[in-house]
Amino acid sequence: MTTLTLNLPDERFLELEEKSAQLNITPEEFALRGITELLSLPDEKFQEIMEEVLEEYGELYQRLAA
What we know:
Structural class: mainly alpha
Distance between the termini: 46 Å
Number of helices: 3
Order of helices and strands: HHH
Shape: elongated
Largest sheet: none
Radius of gyration: 20 Å
C-alpha cells in the first residue's frame, strides 16, 4: 500500500472532519472513499461511445431482453 499526503486549507479540513464525523468514519476513510468513487467513474470518451452504441442498438437490446 502507498501512503499519500495531502495539503488542505484549514477550512476544507474542518469540512472533511465534520462530514466524516457525521458518517462515523475517519477523515482518511472519507477521503479514500471519495477518491475510490472518482476513480471508478468512466471517462468521458467511454461514456460518449456507450451512449452512441445504446442509441444505435437500443431497440435490438430491448428485443433481446424481452
